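Materials and Methods. Structural model of S-adenosyl-L-methionine-dependent methyltransferase. The 468-residue sequence of S-adenosyl-L-methionine-dependent methyltransferase from Cinchona calisaya was retrieved and submitted for structure prediction as follows.
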Amino acid sequence: MAKKCVPKLRLGRIMGWLQIILGGLVILVSLSSLYRFYSAGFFYQNEDICRHFYGVKDVYEKFDVRSLAARIDEVLDKMDSLQNKLELAVQQMERNKDDLRKGNVSKLEYKRYLEEEVIKPLYSAHIALRQIRLPVIQGNDSSDVKEDPLINFFVTEEVRKYITPKENRVGKINIYGTGKIYNTIGHSCVSMKKELQEYMDYDIGSYCKDDWNLAQKLMVNGCDPLPRRRCLTRASKLYQRPYPINESLWKMPDGRNVRWSNYQCRNFECLSSKNPKRGYSKCTGCFEMDKEKPKWVTNTSLPIDFLIRDVLAIKPGEIRIGLDFGIGTGTFAARMREQNVTIVTSALNLGAPFNEMIALRGLVPLYLTLNQRLPFFDNTLDLIHTTGLMDGWIDLQLLDFILFDWDRVLRPGGLLWIDRFFCNRKDLDDYMYMFLQFRYKKHKWAISPKSKDEVFLSALLEKPPRSL
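The predicted structure was written out as tokens:
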């Protein structure tokens, strides 16, 4: 009996060692797997985990998957709508089959039904499906993906063509140091998809629609800068030559040079401050030359009204170019032009043709919103003047961004002229801090009551050198 037990003991030992070895291998494999998960950043929610496990070919960086899904859903909705429509039509025909037997449906009516109710919806869904763009990997080992941001978000082909980067034809780096030109639209355009597609829906080479108000709506709501368009701008049918420069500064322009279709008024006379239905609220008397002429050149009883001659006397001969940022018809620029100073005037057409008025006076309008970074290089302007546009309604953080941008473009020694800024008395300290935070030199500073609860603030400040 003892001899028979020896082989069983040896076999048991062998099985035990085999189990230990297999258990050790399982532990090693588990540890290896855990280490792989850890090194891939799985436990830290690393975005590169998919790349680690699946490789480049299965992962598409910088690809808008949400837009792709939205576009596919659009196509599916079209197909679902078509199917429901056809099923309802079949059910209705089944209910009225007796009438159909008696009646005669002509081939022309049958053809029209197929074209309008079946072929066109199918074609639309087919085109939408073909326009969906999938990313293409360049090369075998490269991680670059040929895909344009938001390309699948928009349906209108002209939008898609615009935002697609344009490669240099010769395959070399261009003058800007890039291999492609990237046309931009503001990120708010995504939330205004319908309006932007309407704006870009035109026949290439034909006349644009008279839709400047749609364009301005997009700009004011943050879809700025707008895309370029390949259609011809409409002008007034009765356009006349502008007046010569020695007359145009202080003469009311010819109203035939403006397209009035999107305004309440149909001529400059209607824009008088005496007309309660003129269509704009700010800038009282802007379109009346007799009320505009005294501004900045005639003494007033208010300490907040600075005169141009006094401002220029602070920096004799140094103020040559600048920006007037506000609401107006260019009168400040006209007065500065008489002093051989070139002023660009920012303007939006808020209820009246401000841009056309400024240009017809022989001055330079800059079609610009509060949303946009100023299109000037650093340290280049001698003067920034602001009046009418910004007052106590403006958010402090927004004002902070604007003031920092103004500081960027003002040259050392340049002047910031805050003209008749007004706000509630209780908010004055906050706004004073915003204007004084840059430690500009004070040349003029005046506060005056506007009403019981509001005050005016005017200031003339000089940017310090800040040499490093």
